[in-house]
Amino acid sequence: MFLAVDSYRVTAKYYDAAYSAKQDLVDLPFYLGLAGQSPGPVLEMACGTGRVLLPIARKGIEVHGVDNSLPMLTILKANLADEPHDVRQRVTLHEGDMRDFRLGAQYPLVMIPFRPMQHMHTVQDQVSALRTAALHLTDAGILVFDVFYPKFELIHTRIGEKVAEMEWSPNPDSDSDVAKTKTVRRYFRKDHVDKINQTFSFTFIYRTFLEGQLILEETEVLQLSYFTYPHLRALFMLAGLEVVAEHGSFAKTPLDNSAEQMIFLLRKAHLRT
Q1: Rounded to an integer, what distance in angstroms lies between the CA atom of residue 200 and that of residue 178?
Q2: Is the dihedral of CA 169, 22, 16, 149 positive or negative?
Q3: pLDDT tens digits, residue range 124-176?
Q4: Residue 3 and residue 12: Cα distance in Å, rounded?
Q5: At a CB cut-off of 8 Å and minimum separation 6, what does 80 contact?
Q6: What is this structure's pTM?
Q7: Is 126 helix (H, G, I), strand (E, B) or coil?
Q8: Could you give all domains of the chain from N- to C-terminal order, each with its CATH number?
Q9: Do 162 and 187 meet the contact criterion of CB atoms below 8 Å apart?
């Protein structure tokens, strides 16, 4: 059994503010739309701090979340405590690893938003995660997840280079003078590419500035897998899943050479006629 871990220890602290400031993160309406079409409850695997989970609950939909990162779940529980009572009542949280958790329940919609599948670094882990999702689907249930469309011309470039990604105020709603003069910048440094196993390791660098002066720097090393389309289709076969729909963006554009994302809606393969 894979146990809950201390992953995202640094990133969890910055996660909500960072991704609130990320202008090109446009997946939320897509996932909310699917949740709204589902009779519920919804299961979100790798729910993190609740960026998708909490808006689903606010729409009046029961949602269950699973994550193996204790720091991320701690932030989510704090976020949930600030929600109205009716929203809190719709949310059930579990500690568990997407490769092997078993809730003893099935759901009409299982979602894995914002690329947690790319934290599965071996074929065994990737198939295990998809089989976990399939086991939690009702017979007519749908699994949906996204990964990025790999840009092979860029994957092996700029290794070791520190790139500024985003900047935000850590407390944008605060009236304090300190909050108004404090900013956080996140930098990305690609450290290594493993083209055989289709993974790359990288470092997030978080720098906090007060009135323009650096007062804190924290780093976290992470690793992501990247997938080709045939690789994913083979994983679906191994996991007993088949494609219902596929998109190249959250606007549901075709999955073709212009795609930025690979988004799949899947069902249990035994349902085909």
Answers
A1: 37
A2: negative
A3: 999 999 999 999 999 999 999 999 999 999 999 999 999 999 999 986 555 55
A4: 18
A5: 50, 54, 87, 88, 91, 93
A6: 0.94
A7: helix
A8: 11-149+227-271 (3.40.50.150), 153-225 (no CATH)
A9: yes
